Amino acid sequence: MGNKMTKYGFAILIALIFCVSLPVVWLEVYIWQYCLFPPNSPNVEVVVSACDNPTIKMMSPDGRYLPYSVVTSKGYESWVLDTVTGERQLDTTCGNWWLNNTLKLGGITKTAKYPGEFTICDITDGTKIAVEWSEDTIEVPEEVVERFRDAEQVYYISFSRWAIALGPDFKNHPEQVYVLAEGYDPTHSVLNFLKDNQISYQEINYPNEGKRRVSHNGRFVTKLFGEDGFYTAEGTKIGPLYDNFSRDYPGCCTTYGWAYDDSGVYAQAHIQSGGMFPNPTPRQPILKLDLPQEYLTPAARQALNVYQNHARVEMMIKVLVLILLLLAGLWFFWWRRKVKRETVK
Q1: Alpha helices in the chain (DSSP H)
Q2: What is the pLDDT, as a whole number, of residue 24?
Q3: Contacts of 344 (CB under 8 A, 6+ apart)
Q4: Residues 91, 104: Cα–Cα separation, whole Å
Q5: Helix (H) and strand (E) counts for the chain?
Q6: Contact 316, 308 (CB under 8 A)
Q7: How much is the pLDDT for 277?
Q8: Does the pLDDT at position 235 exceed 80?
């Protein structure tokens, strides 16, 4: 009788543990669903897993360098991916504004608690240069005017209203770099300064300005937001961004730029709000959404096939490990029962 009650008590305990664990397991799967179950589609590459809680940043204009941040136990870490070589390294550059394919500008104007500073850096060799700057556009010294006139290249960042003069040998001569930031007098704007002094400039727009992403070769187009698909420049739809976006990533994505070889776009899905409470799920993975294969170059098609084969091998390894763990668990359960039976005898 006692053994029977013990068996019933043990069964009840197991049932209670199962009932309590089931919601916990479901919550864990829900929270980490994009980490545990990455997208599985022929034209989708996972560039950074959702397990790393990534946030994509502004890509280089040519689509080669992809900066992003991840969340670690120590906080945020910034990385940059060279999409040509596949090399990843810690991002020690200075800001988010790309002046060209390798130079970035970072900075902030003077505030009540911060004196302000500007830095220019080269992502290829790690060069960092503190830049002289001013936000006095009312009385610009003639020396500064001459710096802009003699510059090899002048950039105007319209979102921040900054003008940057860049000399031909600025790495060896930092005085060849100068930033003019706009002050608080709208009648003396940086843009007016450039036009009044007949200084040619290249305008850099905010990265999300406009509603379309046009490939570097001008042949293909996709929207900045949404899952509409890939189009030719003439407006013919040639395929979806991702067959299962509506199911896997409700709300779809923001595209951040075309790949350097125009083989597809880099994107990250939006995080859905949970009403009054934020969604507890990690950020979505950073993805590369490839064009339909018939529109890829032979080199891009080969690279995609290599990635897909690698992904299949990884999946097979995961399945094999899971099967081995399951078999080990079954063997351990059988061995324990065998030991108990021999002990009773």
Answers
A1: 2-31, 33-36, 142-150, 190-196, 245-248, 298-344
A2: 47
A3: none
A4: 12
A5: 6, 20
A6: no
A7: 43
A8: yes
What is the token pair recorded at 160?
């921040």
**Side chain identity, residue 299:** A
Highest mean pLDDT out of 152-156, 209-213, 234-238: 152-156
Alpha-carbon torsion (97, 102, 103, 104), positive or negative: positive
3-class SS of residue 300:
helix
Q: Are 173 and 167 in contact (CB under 8 A)?
A: yes
Tokens 């009540």 sit on residue: 112
**What pLDDT was estimated at residue 203?**
92
Tokens found for residue 106: 């970072």
Alpha carbon distance 258, 85 (integer Å):
16
pLDDT in tens, 119-128: 999 988 888 9
Which DSSP state fits 274?
Answer: B
* Residue 285, both tokens: 């993975």
Please, what sign has the CA dihedral across residues 76, 77, 82, 87? negative
Residues of the chain above pLDDT 90, percent: 25
Whole-number Å distance between alpha carbons of 128 and 110: 20
**Cα 137 to Cα 189: distance, rounded to the nearest angstrom:** 7
Backbone dihedral angles phi then psi of residue 286, each to the nearest 5 degrees: -90, 125
> How far, in Å, CA of 46 to CA of 284, rounded?
10
Query: Using CA atoms, how far apart are residues 144 and 235, in angstroms rounded to an integer?
Result: 47
